[in-house]
Amino acid sequence: MDTTSPVPENNIELKNYTALSRETGPVNIDAPLEPVLDISDIQGNALPGFNKPHQYVLCFKMHDTLSGKKFLKEILPHISTLEEVLAFRRLYRARKKRLGYKPKDELGATWLNISFSYECTKRLTPSAAAFKSEAFKVGLAERSSSLGDPTSPDNEGSPHNWILGGKDNVPDVFIIIGGDRQEQLQEKVVFVKEIATAFKLECIYDEEMNTIESDGVTGLEHFGFKDGISQPGVRGRLSDMPGDYLQERYIAENVLPDSLLYGYPGQFLSWPGEFIFGYPGQTLDPLIPGSISTEGPIWTKNGSFMVFRRYKQDVKMFWKYMLDTSDELSKQGKFTDMSPQKLAAMLIGRWPGGAPYARVQDKDDKALGADKMANNYFRYASDSCPVNMVNGYQDNYPQSKADPIGLTCPMSGHIRKVNTRDTSNDAGGTLASFQQRLLRRGLPYGPPLFNPLDPNTPDPAKGNRGLIFLSYQVSIENQFEFLRNRWMSNRFSPRNPGGDDIAIGLNGNYDQDRVRAGMVFDEEAQPVNLSTSDQWITPTGGGYFFSPSLSAITHVLSESNNV
Amino acid sequence: MKLERFHPPGNMTDFNNIPNQLQQWSDAISGWIDGAIQIEQGRLPAGTPVQFFNATKTDPSGQSFIQDIIWNAFPRTLVLAYGKEMAYPKSEQLFSLGDKRPGLPTAPPFFPCPVGSEMWKLWKDLLYRPLDEYCEFRVERDPNTQKILRIIFTSEPPEYWQALHGDELQDANGNFAYKFTGDKNLMLDLYHEYVSKEVKLEDLACKQDYDYMGTDKDGKPVKIQVFRKGDYNPYNMWNSTKGIMHLSHPNNFIQAEIQLGADATILRQKNGKPVVQADALVCCSGYGGTSRSSDPTIGASVNDLARLGAYVTILDPIGLYMHDLNTEGFTKPNGESIDPREYFKVVRGDEAGGMIERAVFEVPAKEGFTVSDLKIGGVPINWGGQVAEHINIKITGNAVGPGTFKNPMLPCATFCCIDVKVSNALTRVSDIGDPIHTGYQETFKNDQGTFGQTLVSDLKDGLSSAVQEAKPYREMSGIPAHKKR
Ligand code: HEM
User: Fold this and answer.
1) What is the Cα–Cα distance from B382 to A404, expressed in whole angstroms?
2) pTM for this prediction
3) φ, ψ for residue A123, nearest 5 deg
4) Are strands B410-411 and B268-270 parallel, antiparallel or unpaired?
5) What percent of the residues of chain A are helix, what percent strand, and what percent coil, each to the nearest 5?
6) B297 and A284: CB-CB below 8 Å?
7) How far B425 CA sits from the closest chain A CA (Å)?
8) pLDDT (tens digit, 9 = 90+) per residue, B241-272?
9) Is A438 helix (H, G, I), strand (E, B) or coil?
């Protein structure tokens, strides 16, 4: 189908958002009225996300409830809010833009957030009995077998062997601290540990996480792919000013409906009730707000469920498969320019540098991968075409083509298994796609492996590396678990022809020997079957937590006359 | 090569020894497809070819793609209307055909007739399962402990059983047109084998005519016949209160699937931009329910293929199938995983081909516990729906020769309204121009679900001739009015 390129319209004033922009999106009559978020009550890692290069997870057992409550009073002023994190982020970006490089030496902050297990919340307040979420109540270890995790005690990944969150090492309190500078972060960690000890909290796990940068690409996970690119844009305003949106909108106001549907191009806007309790969620029509999300106790407003999973990644094994299999495929002559990177890009859905496979198939395009205005702009059901943007940006990279059967970007690719975008899926239409989103806040732990394609590359860390996966959502069952159980480890859904999520999936089905099988299409559109039972990722711990609002901590959880 | 004939669902063999029955089945399927094609032809501007095709009559050239279209077995309509917790018990109840539909507060009954009339009383006595994803189940419990002993699943279409009974089935215009030889004794044997030894032939037949009040082309009320005295009664007690043999929800039938497939090959546009997203398409074309898992995904998947300019059809054998049960996370009381081959026994259909028609979920006798003693993700199985939500249902689409067609995109025929106080997803689908009901607001007003910035050039030509398409939409839909969703 032909589409002509957009012509920038002369009479439109270009916009560049600054540190204090108060109109960050359309205010016309078609724009739906978005709720004002309680920005000083919502914890900042849920929204907008710490996004810090260095982070630390600390997990505690709370041995004494009354002391634990005193600890909460003590830690309360250190908990970072949406408002603080966002204000800093906008300032940082504005400085970066003017300087032309990261203002690392000039600006720095250290943020802290806290979450609680079900057992712990019950001890802190009897009203926690009103929680409805089965998953939160029974806990991650019980749910593990339905998340594809290994069940055999001989396997490192079974809950019997988890370093935390298994049968009897479930933490009560989860604290995450993130910072721009490692020294400041360390100071904060020591500080938190000290007061925790003073109030009889025992630290049962702590782990450092750092972003990985290589060859000029930032934000890599250990397999070597740029992560954290596709995040839902969250609707909602910071004040009752009409255009004061949390998520800046980049598509020119006169482009309808796109300017009302996206933050960055391709970044679909979701109603905040999908992630934070107390706000409207999604309906069938993305511009009509739905009913208010609630969960059991009334103090859950402004809170969110947090999933924490520690996945060990076997980087050498991952790349060995890519090397061997791409070699074989090349020999069979099914693909021109087949390479380990290309095969891996097909199975992830993005190239290592972040460029979407749907947009470029020949080779990685690092500029596209790093370009926020373009790296999430693609569709599966129809061709994409350039749109006018508020800042005059022109997207000159190749556009994506309609690919409903997965002839180009395989349906078994990780990002196609967890987000069906504009295509339908086994749970129904587009509404179903947009009710399964997550705010992903994970970061790698352990040192990167250099030259992973070389089987003899030295590994002083002995394989101790992986991803601390963190996600925030209002329903553990319908969001995180749904993606893991119904989509990633189901060979036939969300769409066919596809297969398991070979790269990131785990297959816990009976008698299938943990084999992940899927298919891609060669250049003649003939199916090529791929499979492996290699354990590229191994769950080694985690837990389900609730991340309450600051007011809930102040008035309910730390309150000592309710136990 | 052209297909020689259409085969029975899941290649089931019951028709094999009945004289002419296999051919009669093929003729009926072929007739329903042709009827659907004719309806689409009436919608398209003169001279525009229909992309939906009859594989026994057309052998399109070009590369062929086969796509399984998958959806979940547990009714999303019930989850959206009642929430999971309440949807589970609701899904195990039976509902009367004379009453309003569960979970769809504004939808009229399937067979409208004046409440209290004799006609209505007949419908009132017929019961169906509220399971509208082309998969139905019956939960059998221990009468003393209420623990689940077994869950019986079916995806067999009612038409197959009407054919086995030797009935005459209606064509796309609602005329009785396809007569089957049938074999009532075989039918009885099957009921004896799968439901109960107590079943008698007379229990399975209609004791009188069943009619309802519809409207004719000019909008005048007319009596429309659904079953004739002596015909097979799909709502018989052995397929409702006392057992389960095949699909009973009035929307779960093969002809509806064919019509939906054909309807979805019509390309749609709004203000010159192609309508792409599944929910927006349902609202624009009016071919199904937005609240289901099945219809939006079947429709959008077919439409995606049609937008590539391909010929599209449903792959033979045309049927509705359970594809698989995913038992990841299903554990025994001792914590071990269950072996689905021992617990989910396929008794009819083709298991290897992913065309399961009937299956029973139960604990092997040697284990000595019940289904309710199993857990999924640490939560005991108390309802059949907890198992159903791990079953994939499918139909298989076949697209041939992408790039063959450049059909015009028609304007929307219908639009949706939503009342978020009622539900975040359930909508009323109305004809363009119809009033909006109080409490409701129009959806997709800013063309949400469309893509593309500029009017596609060859689309402009289609516009003028297609504008008339919107209005006669309802009357032209070939599915007998009582079978329309
Ligand atoms: C070791 C484990 C994992 C690794 C290495 C990994 C890696 C990646 C990478 C490289 C991307 C593409 C970058 C981006 O679009 O942001 C991605 C995207 C994504 N991942 Fe993962 N992932 C892991 C586990 C998971 C799990 C367990 C889930 C959910 C249950 C998940 C959900 C997602 C989602 C929702 C996206 C965004 C897809 C989109 O919107 O296009 N990931 N992941």
Assistant:
1) 38
2) 0.95
3) -75, -30
4) parallel
5) 25, 20, 55
6) no
7) 5
8) 999 999 999 999 999 999 999 999 999 999 98
9) coil
Pocket lining: A438 vs ligand 1, CB cutoff 6 Å = yes
The distance between the two most distant Cα atoms of chain A, rounded to a whole number of Å, is 73
The strand pairing partners of B418, in sequence order, are B427, B441
What whole-number distance in Å separates Cα of residue B9 and Cα of residue B246? 12
Q: Do the chains contact at A283 and B280, CB–CB below 8 Å?
A: no
Cross-chain residue pair A428–B441, CB shorter than 8 Å? no
Closest CA to B156 of B359, B386, B385, B390: B359
Q: Does A9 touch chain B (CB under 8 A)?
A: no
pLDDT, one tens digit per residue, over A22-66 is 999 999 888 999 999 999 999 999 999 999 999 999 999 999 999
Q: What is residue A9's predicted lDDT score, i.e. its pLDDT?
A: 52
Intervals of chain B under pLDDT 50: 454-479, 482, 484-485
Rounded CA-CA distance A169/A164 in Å is 5
How much distance in Å is there from the Cα of B176 to the middle of ligand 1? 54
Where are chain A's structural domains? 317-437+487-541
The answer to whether the beta carbons of residues B383 and B92 sit under 8 Å apart is yes
Which pair of tokens denotes residue A203? 């630290």
**C-alpha distances in angstroms, B307 versus A49, A400, A420, B148, B268?**
39, 15, 18, 46, 9
Which A-chain residues 444-483 have CB contacts (< 8 A) with chain B? 481
Q: Measured between CB atoms, does B307 come within 8 Å of chain A?
A: yes
With beta carbons less than 8 A apart as the criterion, state whether A217 and A351 touch. Answer: no
Cβ <8 Å between B68 and A1: no
Please report, for chain B, how many H helices and E strands are present, in that order.
13, 23
Nearest protein Cα to ligand 1, atom 32: A418
Q: Is the CB of residue A252 below 6 angstroms from any atom belonging to ligand 1?
A: no
Let me know how long chain B is.
485
What secondary structure letter does DSSP report for A141?
A: H
For A180, A183, A252, B205, the CA distances from A186, given in Å and listed in that order, are 11, 5, 43, 79
- The DSSP output letter for A390 is T
In degrees, to the nearest 5, what angle opens at C-alpha B346 toward C-alphas B292 and B302? 35
The number of beta carbons lying within 10 Å of the beta carbon of residue B176 is 13
